[in-house]
Amino acid sequence: MTEESLIALRAENLTKQVNSPEGALTILDNVSFDIDGGGSVAICGPSGAGKSTLLALLAGLDEASSGSVWLDGTELGSLDEDGRAALRARRVGFVFQSFHLIPALTALENVMLPLELDGANDPRQRARDTLAAVGLAERTRHYPNQLSGGEKQRVAIARAFAGKPAVLFADEPTGNLDSATGEKIIDLLFDLNREQQATLVLVTHDEQLASRCDRRIDLAAGRLVPDS
Asked: β-strand 215-220 against 199-203: which pairing, if any?
């Protein structure tokens, strides 16, 4: 196995600028790093440091002003929007602070949807198995408004892991949960990270959560903090 094959994510001279009334605003400034496959990484820093922007660039949800991102061996800049969407569907999972479940679909249907869109074999059984793995075997027919916050996040985690992604991105996954529920959700994320060997990339303000990761990447005012 080559060194390149061990790298799940690579950012090279990544810069993101947006226009503002005061002129060009630099959100990320020349950020470079590699993330090895199968581990866990926390992206940390104060509000406005560029954490969520970095996550969006790494996942191909946004385009950099300059620089490059390699995701699971593919340079995202070489793909058009449809190509990036197809790569995400095959190789990426997402867990967000606000759950992003579809209200009109049951828990089972929410987990099935990305599997069906990707043409997976037997999406219903795969969704059932993954919901069982996160402790929701008895809640498959419930709609999001019939679930607690912790249960909604478990559905979101099941949806993210059902496709067996190479990389899972989580943006403040416990931000809308109480501390006890949040701790259970984090335990679940790390359990699935180990079982599936999916690279886990977390954006978090939580120092305790960051300390559980194999590595942390700190940002300040859009720049990488040395020796983080």
From this structure: unpaired
Q: What pLDDT shows up at residue 43?
A: 96
Q: What is the rounded CA–CA span in Å between residue 174 and residue 182?
A: 5
Distances (CA, A) of 35 to 5, 32, 204, 213: 11, 10, 17, 12
Rounded to whole angstroms, how far apart are CA atoms 171 and 197? 19
The whole-angstrom separation of Cα 107 and Cα 137 is: 10
Please answer whether residues 57 and 17 qualify as being in contact, where contact means their C-beta atoms are separated by less than 8 angstroms.
no
* 202 beta partners: 42, 170
Q: Which two tokens stand for residue 201?
A: 């990339």
106, with CB counted inside 10 A (0-12, 13-18, 19+), is buried
Note the pLDDT tens digit of each residue in 128-177: 999 998 999 999 999 999 999 999 999 999 999 888 889 999 998 888 88
Pair 26, 17: CB distance under 8 Å: yes
